[in-house]
Amino acid sequence: MAYLHISWLLLAQCLLLLVTRIVAKVPAVVVFGDSSVDAGNNNQIQTVLKSNFQPYGRDFEGGKPTGRFSNGRVPTDFISNAFGLRSSVPAYLDPAYNISDFAVGVTFASAGTGYDTATSDVLSVIPLWKQLQYYKEFQNKLRLYMGGNKADQTIHEALHMMSLGTNDFLENYYTYPGRSNQYSIEQYQDFLIGIAGNFIKQLYDLGARKISLGGLPPMGCLPLERTTNFMGGNDCISDYNNVALEFNGKLKTLTTNLNKQLPGIKLVFSNPYYIFLHMIRRPSFYGFEVSSAACCASGMFEMGYACNRNNLLTCTDASKYIFWDAFHPTEKANRIISDYVVKKVLAQFL
């Protein structure tokens, strides 16, 4: 009888452990950001920054251009899949989806946006504050769909991801005189950090507890930037990479500080910089052949409408390239970066 009692006790403990794991598992992925994680929100707004045409999406399910700035999936699609959720995260403004789809994954991201509202104004895209409004709207829909308690639990356990910042520097600060006349580069970084911190606090107040704050890539190595680096032999622009490193350092400090300030939050810093740079410096190690130019068109400066299916120069096999267009990685590069981030940072949420 004692043996039977121990067996039942062990079984109960195993079942409790299993239930705990199921409850603790991330039930949804909620995404904010720019073109690195936009799945088609820009399709539904008045802006010139779109990618809902071929050859974009040619390696996506069904060869369908969705509005993702890649030949296939973007990082959050792979991350969603890694958490056992759907293989792609739909855009909130896409009329083909509804709250039953968004309940397990949704992206509010808009290509061309940044932390700074002035950045989103450049190409008339969705600013970060508007993405937060959409998120509040989503929460209301989720409560009607699931019921208040279950919706609140889903929000509490969902992984909230942020991926933006590159446009603030390349599309705004270094391109237009407004912010560069107003701030030194260090001051502008601090200005953006303040916005990022406030945004995370707002997510926290709305019930989010698991948050991934994404860092900047080596933005001086984007083909578009290398093309302009005549004096440097079209190599990576080191000043831009140094700014990315400095900003990432500030994001990491912000992560440490907010984890101390906000009870119960689990904020992590997901840094793509080093894995991305390693891919660029040693492409053959990852099975790539080309790291300095993109697959689409000439590979030097084209993106958006300049990257179209009529261009005869577009490569036939994107898996040989790190970059799809002059600004965005290929699906293969996105998968490698995502796998790295999941294993190194996000695995604690699994």
Automatic annotation (TrEMBL):
<protein>
    <recommendedName>
        <fullName>GDSL esterase/lipase</fullName>
    </recommendedName>
</protein>
<dbReference type="InterPro" id="IPR050592">
    <property type="entry name" value="GDSL_lipolytic_enzyme"/>
</dbReference>
<dbReference type="Pfam" id="PF00657">
    <property type="entry name" value="Lipase_GDSL"/>
</dbReference>
<comment type="similarity">
    <text>Belongs to the 'GDSL' lipolytic enzyme family.</text>
</comment>
<feature type="signal peptide">
    <location>
        <begin position="1"/>
        <end position="24"/>
    </location>
</feature>
<dbReference type="InterPro" id="IPR036514">
    <property type="entry name" value="SGNH_hydro_sf"/>
</dbReference>
<keyword id="KW-0732">Signal</keyword>
<dbReference type="InterPro" id="IPR035669">
    <property type="entry name" value="SGNH_plant_lipase-like"/>
</dbReference>
<dbReference type="GO" id="GO:0016788">
    <property type="term" value="F:hydrolase activity, acting on ester bonds"/>
</dbReference>
<dbReference type="InterPro" id="IPR001087">
    <property type="entry name" value="GDSL"/>
</dbReference>
